[in-house]
Specification:
5 domains, 7-stranded mixed sheet, 27 helices, 15% strand
Amino acid sequence: MAEFLLEILAEEIPAGILPAAREDLLASVSAAFVDARLGGTLSVYSTSRRLALVGEGVADTQPDAETEVTGPPASVGYDADGNPTKAALGFAKAHGVTVEDLRVATLPKGAYVVARKVTPGRPAGEVIGEILPALVERMTFPRMMRWGDGTPQWIRPVHSVLALLDGLVIPMGLFGVESGRTTFGHRSLAPGRIVTMGVADWFQKLRAAHVEPDLAVRRARFQEQAHALASEVGGEPADDAALLDTWAHLVESPGVVRGAFDPAFLELPEEILVTSMREHQKMLPVRSGGALAAHFLAVADQVGDPKGLIARGNEWVTAARFSDARFFWDDDGKTRLEDRLPRLGRLQFQETLGDYLKKTGRIQDLAEKLAARLGLSHLDSLLVRAARLMKADLVTDMVREFPDLQGVVGGLYARREGEQEEVWQALYDQYRPASADDASPRGDVGGAVALADRLDTLTGLFGLGLAPTGSKDPYALRRAALGVVKILLDKKWRLDLPAACADAAAPHGELPRAKDEMLKELSAFFLERLRFLLEKKGHAPDVVEAVLTTDCPDLADAEERVEAVEAMRKEQDFLPLAAAFKRMQNILAQTAEAPEEAGEPDPAKMTDDAEMALAGDYLQAKGMLDDLVAQRRYKDALSIMASLGPALDRFFTEVHVMAEDPEVKANRIALLRSMRDQFVRVARFSEIRA
């Protein structure tokens, strides 16, 4: 077994790209090592300038590979006396074996000549040197760079390649750079060349040269320093795990500095100050007693700031940003949101779907229709007002400067202008939830206008044939659909979603996609988002599948059915019911009767005691099931279904469904079909695994 080390040193790699690059490199090389019979356990390391892999337990030489190769049929490979023919001799020669090594094997397609072929293993260094360059050079990134003669293409120009196996250099080339055993320390603190003898030596010498290659160590040091510096001014760092992750990807030597700003800026809304610090300068705000303090923490690619130059530079930039924000806050306040609406006519939403003023009109109309469907018509005036103003902040200077604050800025401005609480909160929350873990909008007004906005976008873009494909989703339609599903689940709203989508599609008029086809595709799109959220909540995939393969126009109702099936699954009589349903489904799958021939089962045509017992139990329970399902008392309905289990078992044991008498057979099929149709109002139990 050997240790392996690969380090690619490049120009600074963007922090947002590093997480995916780490995963890609680790996954592709790990798979390649397995395929090449090298084994080992690989770990990935990175800094802002380097990507590295460390391997333990890697084979120093490939084990021999044994394969069995199929040749001609035995009747062709050997004559009647059992002597090898030219076909067998040629087959043996082609695969480097003797004719004595051939044998006859009985395969599914008959008797064939086969040969056991042994491929000798090669030194691991040779194999790695062949497979690594192609893997690394095939890596793709959102934006690629070219350098030199324009031929190399990667995320950033590569400066050096370190590749070792048990301390010996693995000869190879990457982007025209030959591998070796040298690397370099921190760009400014220790820029000299480092000669590396192995993995432990690499770690030791890099750390001595002010480079910490372990992402987790850098992050922990950031957290420790941030708490120490904030506590010196009586505060604590804001809780922002994502920003700490970004910091860890930005540097090689983890350092934090503390700066201060004029407390007068605290008169501005906190959201504006925090966004300016976080998004523009990657700063971590400091809080004291839950409120924002006049201090911030900034990342530095070195430990310590003895002359205070790093802190002072960040303070200058912060003061300028905050001054701009204060100007925008004051200047935007001179024009009310209502008066900004005409400007939305000059802001394009989508070429075919029109500008944001047209979109605003569609959202208003749809919000009223949704209110009627959701029983919120008493909120019509508030819904229309919120829908009317919700996009007005897109034409403010504040949003032009801080695009991440769109929606939030509208809410802040609406509150300042004296709009009712339900209205300004709806504007503020309109882009929530932004993810599966984000909160839905506060209040019914906010939820309804957020739904209307997303449904207008989804139906319009799906109608244009712009649904996401593969990993491409330029209009963030997956996030929009996830938001629709999460709002409906969080608020437990009963909504016929396909009907609401039809309402949303109507104002778009004629689009390239046929409306029925588009609505069908969009319904499936929503169900995939629903599947994701339900499984994320911990529901079993087979239970989710059992519900989602039934009719699910009401997503909140579908979640209730999943919860009921999952609760009932713990009961001892549930699995026998699921097994009986599968048997019922299998029998019905073999029948060719048209739906109109099935009808309802007729007790007068029943000839068997077990058949009559099942029909009696079922027909007695049917009315109760209708009432319970209508009331969404799904667990009670499932209990009644489970009570039919013994009668079903007896029926399948004693009754031959496919009777010779056509009328008896059709009646038995009608009984099973009626039961099946009743059951699938809750779930399709054939999807449940034992």
